[in-house]
Design goal:
152 residues, 89% helix, elongated, transmembrane helix
Length: 152
């Protein structure tokens, strides 16, 4: 059982890293380079398709492994209210990020809205910020878990 938990935790961390790291790369390297290079519609479209595939895979892995890991942690030991509150915040923020990422990935809808709303233009940056926040909450959860083990 420990090996399965370890493997799923590893997959969870790798999926989160790929998504957040990929978002950083997309926002701060690829998009500025494409803007500077001028219109390259075929390249831009292929990058968007590939990034959407990566994002969808990461979200699927995060949801599946996250459900297992949540159940695994909650059944192991007494974690306390602070752990539960941070976990619920992490889950809520992650779900918001997933929904927003789905919205961003709907290119025809977004293309129309991008011209009309600031939210549509900022949504990729919001997804990235939420992803970083989820990472921070994950680190806090780990610290709270370790502290609960030390106190027993």
């Amino acid at each position: 059982m420990l090996e399965i938990s370890w493997l799923l935790r590893l997959l969870h961390i790798l999926a989160a890293t790929a998504w957040v790291g990929g978002s950083l790369m997309y926002q701060f390297v690829i998009m500025p380079a494409l803007r500077k290079a001028g219109p390259l519609p075929a390249v831009s479209a292929q990058i968007a398709i590939n990034f959407k595939r990566l994002t969808n895979l990461c979200i699927t892995v995060l949801l599946l492994t996250g459900a297992y890991l949540t159940f695994d942690r909650l059944t192991q030991t007494t974690l306390g209210l602070s752990y539960i509150v941070v976990l619920l915040c992490k889950i809520l923020i992650a779900l918001i990020a997933f929904i927003l990422a789905f919205y961003v990935g709907q290119s025809p809808i977004r293309r129309l809205a991008r011209r009309a709303t600031t939210f549509s233009r900022l949504s990729p940056q919001i997804v990235l910020a939420l992803g970083v926040l989820v990472f921070i909450l994950g680190a806090l959860l780990n610290a709270l878990f370790e502290a609960s083990l030390a106190s027993h």
